[in-house]
Amino acid sequence: MSSAIHRKITVLPGGKIELIDAKLPTGQPVDVFVVVPAKDHNDESPSALDILDKAPGHRLFPGIEEVDDHIQHERDSWAS
Fold first, then answer.
1. In a domain, 69, yes or no
2. What are φ and ψ of residue 61, in 5° steps?
3. Fewer CB within 10 Å: N-end or C-end of the chain?
């Protein structure tokens, strides 16, 4: 009958992992599975501006002031 051991292990430098358990049979071959959990949503994510800066063509306006100026210019053109 198979048995399983579950441990939370921190990956060491160089991608090394180490599991020590006295219950493991000496000289017996074992299967090892490594499951890397998905990133938590709590991790720092890039801001919308960071994403836009990396997008092709970048942003049309460098800042909010330029957006406001453009909108005001458009409104002024409607009034004429």
1. yes
2. -120, 135
3. N
Whether 21 and 7 have beta carbons less than 8 Å apart is answered as yes
Is 59 among the domain residues? yes
Q: Is residue 2 part of a domain?
A: no
- Residue 3: half-sphere exposure toward Cβ, Cα within 13 Å: 4
In order, the DSSP letters of 8-76 are --PPBGGGB-----TTSPTT---------PPPPTTSPPPPHHHHHHHSTT--SSSSHHHHHHHHHHHHH
pLDDT for 11-40, tens place per residue? 999 999 999 988 888 999 999 899 888 776
